[in-house]
Specification:
- An eight-stranded mixed β-sheet has the order 1-2-4-3-5-6-7-8, sandwiched between helices.
- With about 260 residues, the chain is of the alpha/beta class.
- Helix 3 packs across helix 9.
- The chain is globular.
- The protein contains twelve helices and eight strands.
- The model has no long low-confidence stretch (mean pLDDT about 95).
Length: about 260
């Protein structure tokens, strides 16, 4: 395990494997670097893969107060540890963070986002906001388990499925990381596609969605691709939001290997 020191002194833990041009992998809500272990293994024969725990997760630290800029600085520190320039891939809210990092002017060679969960439809945005708006406040009140339940419900997971999850060994781990949901809510803002930020991206950009991903995400991916000059958009057949490394890996390898 490696450690990068972010600008505010926070220790960011990461695994490095492979050789070649570097790529940083950014996880989404409730995820530590374990979410990308299979993808890292898939990419490592072709690239140097930096797979990290976002702040507040896994073995990384978390220095308050939180701001999205701190997570961008974390990625900057990881890029520095990787040699000073790197591609960045992110999934879900991690994809939105990867786009923000590229827009902020970090030395990002290429940026790829899978299913960044922006919301284009005003009706869908209002419905999602009504379900999830309480999550940051519940976290501020220290009610992490309630925040987790509310977040899962806002993503469309049925109540009976959430109840079933509560009985699994993984539940305690999800509750432990639930306070970082406030970070993801800050990254997503009002959930609108941030066209002004995206217009600042100059690195080659790839937006990817799954054919089985939620319709609102697929709409958002198309809109996001249009907001970034020259961005490409690819849909993976048979994949949903929980994309497999076997399906995603070849697309990433092809895009990242292009001169």
């Amino acid at each position: 395990m490696g450690k990068a020191i972010s600008q505010d002194g926070t220790v960011i833990a990461f695994d490095r494997q492979g050789a070649g041009d570097p790529v940083v992998l950014v996880g989404g809500a409730l995820c530590d670097r374990g979410i990308h272990r299979e993808l890292a293994d898939f990419l490592a024969p072709h690239f140097t893969v930096v797979n990290y725990d976002r702040r507040g997760r896994g073995e990384s630290g978390d220095t308050p107060p939180y701001a999205v800029e701190r997570e961008i600085e974390d990625i900057a520190a990881l890029i520095g540890a990787a040699g000073g320039r790197a591609a960045v891939y992110g999934i879900s809210s991690g994809g939105a963070l990867a786009l923000r990092a590229a827009a902020a002017g970090l030395p990002v060679t290429k940026v790829i986002a899978y299913d960044p969960p922006y919301v284009v439809s005003e009706d869908a945005r209002a419905a999602q906001s009504a379900q999830g708006a309480a999550v940051p406040e519940l976290i501020r009140q220290g009610r992490a388990e309630e925040a987790l339940e509310r977040f899962l419900a806002s993503t469309g997971i049925p109540a009976e499925a959430v109840t079933a999850m509560r009985g699994t060994p993984a539940w305690a781990g999800l509750v432990a990381v639930a306070p970082t949901l406030a970070h993801d809510f800050a990254i997503m803002g009002d959930s609108r596609v941030p066209t002004e930020h995206l217009a600042a991206i100059t690195a080659p950009t790839l937006l990817v969605d799954g054919a089985l991903s939620p319709p609102f995400m697929r709409d958002a991916v198309r809109t996001t691709a249009l907001a970034v000059d020259g961005a490409r958009h690819v849909t993976l057949p048979g994949q949903g939001h929980d994309v497999s490394a076997d399906a995603l890996g070849p697309i990433l390898i092809e895009f990242l290997a292009e001169p």
